[in-house]
């Protein structure tokens, strides 16, 4: 049987572990925002045909057609979409940060659970594009929730 003092100390350690995982989730969300904004994720390509006039003597066949020039470039979302993409990319960091503002342990745990659910929805809905970038933050929030003391 553990004494109340030992139980309170263990609860404090669990709470701090939840806080550490929550802070790691926030850091991962900031890394996501930085990556999604600055990495060259947008690919653009253009093709152009150049015709060069040739003098064709009677009876000669033309073997060469137009010269096709293809150009491909990769740009970041910040370059293509502007600064608003940074604000959108920071939403997971904001969601992960909200539980840290809650003071009572039971409220903080519930806030972490809600944040985990919101991040899960974002990851599923955005799975075809950027949702996979949210998965590390989601995993860390789930661990933070499980390491938080209950009611």
Description of the molecule:
This protein is mainly alpha-helical and 151 residues long. Strands 1-2 form a two-stranded antiparallel sheet. The longest helix is centred in the N-terminal third of the chain and has 35 residues. It is rod-shaped. The chain starts with a helix and ends in a 5-residue tail after the last helix. 23% of the residues are buried.
What does the secondary structure layout of this molecule look like, with pairings?
Blueprint: H1 4-38, E1 42-50, E2 67-75, H2 77-81, H3 84-89, H4 91-97, H5 105-125, H6 135-146
Antiparallel strand pairs: 1-2
Helix pairs in contact: 1-4, 1-6, 5-6
User: How can the largest sheet be summarized?
Assistant: 2 strands, antiparallel
Walk across the major sheet and give the strand order: 1-2
- Helicity range of the residues? 55-70%
Low-confidence stretches: 5-11
- State the helix count: 6
Strand runs, count: 2
Overview features:
151 residues, mainly alpha, two-stranded antiparallel ribbon, 57% helix, 12% strand, rod-shaped
């Amino acid at each position: 049987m553990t004494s109340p003092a030992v139980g309170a100390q263990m609860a404090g350690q669990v709470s701090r572990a939840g806080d550490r995982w929550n802070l790691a989730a926030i850091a991962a969300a900031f890394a996501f925002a930085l990556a999604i904004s600055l990495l060259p994720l947008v690919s653009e390509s253009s093709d152009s045909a150049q015709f060069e006039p040739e003098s064709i003597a009677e009876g000669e066949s033309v073997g060469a057609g137009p010269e096709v020039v293809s150009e491909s470039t990769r740009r970041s979302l910040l370059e293509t979409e502007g600064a608003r993409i940074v604000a959108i990319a920071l939403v997971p960091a904001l969601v992960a940060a909200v539980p840290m503002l809650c003071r009572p342990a039971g409220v903080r745990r519930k806030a972490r659970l809600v944040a985990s659910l919101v991040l899960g929805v974002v990851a599923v809905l955005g799975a075809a594009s950027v949702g996979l970038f949210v998965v590390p933050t989601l995993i860390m929030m789930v661990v933070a929730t499980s390491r938080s003391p209950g009611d």
